[in-house]
Structure formats: structure tokens, C-alpha cells
């Protein structure tokens, strides 16, 4: 009965999203839609009544999806990826939308306006977005003060990055910037994501270099925090570079990887739109296979030594399951929600339950890495 209600409800919500809301949204400037969605979401998240209504429209739960990872309890494995809720305005709403966890930010040491507009585009045929926000956010001081006393209902990850300005281009200053944000968030949220892979910033990706990463992580080791730490990596790294990063990371207090961020590489069979903006990183279907290659590679090499969060091109349960079978314990998404509608989170979770049962698993943890020989 419960499942029947969820299927009917999701079908209705999906129909309205695809035939009405998406048609209107996709005529508007993408950044305007994003900022309006944040405003409306803030209103909906503010009262118990509206949150309960959203829960009725979007939630889904099943014991088979529940598990504890790094002492954090997850009710389901589908999370919001970093970059949608940059200033942590919707943490009260995400549980009602059905997410098992959500990552806020990326948050940087200093407040940052981001890159000049326009800085967000849709590649409709490729089911992707081109993103050139350049780490727009209100900065670690303001955001940590806002979040310090909030009791979150689901695990909230804090994504930390280096401020996008000329002052942080030198390694020492860049590290100091990460350290500032890290310290301020040491006791806020459930886990850290250290974003070393934002493609749209001053000075490129310096901390994908193993010796610079070693220095950065050495500094972070000295800051006390009880929270697990994930490193978010770029899908454009060679496997050789990934191996070097893994070797560095093993010397430090790092619990896992997020695979992956946006791709900068325009030479990609999944990109079928004719016009692609020159600036920015690409999300969605264009990044799916690249992220999956990273997940499989790290899991094959390290097995359970690291927890992997799979991210990039999750639109359906089958996409999430593929990542899980390759070794991801959790998955994240943004683009799938924009193209399919917010009911996609419960659709994915419901679909995962079916796929797990079909394969004879009684808990999602048993499926992790089951496709890797
Ligand atoms: C609008 C937008 C903004 C993003 N901003 C960030 C960010 O600030 N930090 C980060 O680590 N990743 C950021 N990302 C990357 C996503 O977290 C994710 O890695 C990527 O979009 C692939 O997932 P998807 O295909 O489900 O969107 C952003 C992505 C989008 C679409």
C-alpha cells in the first residue's frame, strides 16, 4: 500500500514537473531559476506545516537502504552534491525532499562573489550543465556562525574549498585559506569534503599535485575534529595522478573520496549539443562514465580502505546502483534533480530497493563493490 501510494504520487509529481514546471524553468536563465529555487526552498523549509507537506509529496523510506558509515547513520544513500545549496539555506528542507544526506558549500575562507555572469548554462541534449560559478559563497565566518547551533535532521557535509581570488594562488596562502574554513567548521556538520577539484578558479587545481596536497593535508591533520574527511577529486585526472593522490592521502587523516567533480574536457562522446560555452566545468551525463571509472579504479585498488561517494550523472536508480556495485557506499546528485524533478530522489531510492532485492541483498551495504572482480 505504502509503495503503491509512492508510485502514484511520484507519477503525478513527475508529470507536473516535466510538462509544466520544467517547461517554464527551461525558458528562463538557469542562474535565475537556481536563485529563485533557493528563495522558495527557504520559505518552504521555515515552517513545520510546509515541511510536512513536502515530506508527503517526496519522502520514501525502506530499512534495506539504512546503514551506518564512519559512525554516521544514513537513512538512504542518495545525497545532494555540493554546489546547489552554496550558503546552506535549505538544510531544514532537504530531509523532507527525501535526501539521505546533503552537502553544503563549497565554502571558502573568505566570502566570494564568484565569476562574472553568465556562469550557468544547460546542455539539454547531453543532459548536462555547464557551471562557471567560481565558488560563489558567503564565506566561512558568516556561514559557520549561522550554522553553529542548528541541529540537523540528516547528515550534513561541509564542502571546503580555497577562496577564488589572486591572494590564494600561492601554496602557503591557499593552504591558510583552507585551514581557516576547516577550523571554523571543525564542529559543524557530519563530515568534511575537501574540494581540490573546482575547475573554475584562479590558479587552476594546485592541490591535485601530490606534494602540495601532502602539505595541505599535513596542516589539516593538526586541527582537531571528530568528523570524517573526504577528498573530492576531478574526473579529468589520469589514473596515474589518482594513484599518486591515493598514496599521499594514505599518510593522512582521510576517510574517503568523492568521485567526482565537474569535467573540463570537451572531448567527450556524451556531449552531443552543438554549442558549448568555453568557460566552466560540465556536470550530468557528460561526467558519468568518468566518475564511474574513478570509483571502480579506487575500489579495485583499495577495497574498503576508503569510503567512496559516487557523484556525476545519477538520473535513475540504475545509475546509482552502477556506482554502488563499482564500490560507492553513497551517491550524490544535482543535475538529475534539475532534469527529472525533485521526486527523482524517492524514485531512485525505490528503484534501488527493487534492484537490491532482485540481486538477493538484504541491505545496501552488501551491494557495495559487488560488481568489481
Ligand atoms: C550548479 C552547480 C554548482 C556546483 N558547485 C560546486 C561546488 O561549489 N563545489 C563542489 O565541490 N562541486 C560543485 N559542483 C559539482 C557537483 O557537486 C557534482 O560534483 C557534479 O555536478 C556532478 O554531479 P551531477 O552530475 O549529479 O550534477 C557544482 C555542480 C553544479 C551543477
The largest sheet, given as strand count, sense and whether it forms a barrel, is: 8 strands, parallel, barrel
Q: Which stretches are low in confidence, meaning pLDDT under 50 for 5 or more residues running?
A: none
Average of per-residue pLDDT values: 95
Structural class: alpha/beta
CATH topology: TIM Barrel
CATH class term? Alpha Beta
Write down the overall geometry: globular
Helical stretch tally:
12
Distance, first to last CA: 38 Å
- Distinct compounds present: flavin mononucleotide
Q: Order of strands in the sheet with the most strands?
A: 3-4-7-8-9-10-12-13
Percent range for β-strand residues: 15-25%
**SSE pattern, N- to C-terminal:** HHHEEEHEEEHEHEHEHEEHEHEHH
| CATH-scheme architecture | Alpha-Beta Barrel
CATH superfamily: Aldolase class I
Radius of gyration, taken over Cα atoms and rounded to an integer in Å: 19 Å
Number-wise, the strands total 13
Helical percentage: 40-55%
Describe the protein:
Pathway: Pyrimidine metabolism; UMP biosynthesis via de novo pathway. GO terms for molecular function: dihydroorotate dehydrogenase (quinone) activity. It holds the Pfam family DHO_dh. Residues 65-356 form the Dihydroorotate dehydrogenase catalytic domain. Its cofactor is FMN. With 373 residues, this protein is an alpha/beta fold. It has a single domain, classed as Aldolase class I (TIM Barrel), CATH 3.20.20.70. Helices cover 40% and strands 16% of the residues. It contains twelve helices and 13 strands. The strands form three sheets. Strands 3-4-7-8-9-10-12-13 form an eight-stranded parallel beta barrel, surrounded by four helices. Strand 12 (307-311), helix 10 and strand 13 form a beta-alpha-beta unit. Helix 7 packs parallel to helix 8 and helix 10 (317-326) packs across helix 12 (344-358). The chain is globular. The relative contact order is 0.14. The structure holds flavin mononucleotide (FMN). Flavin mononucleotide is lined by residues 81-83, 105-106, 120, 129, 131, 133, 135, 159, 195, 198, 232, 261-262, 283-284, 287, 311-314, 333-336. Residues 81-83, 105-106, 120, 129, 131, 133, 135, 159, 195, 198, 232, 261-262, 283-284, 287, 311-314, 333-336 line the site of flavin mononucleotide (FMN).
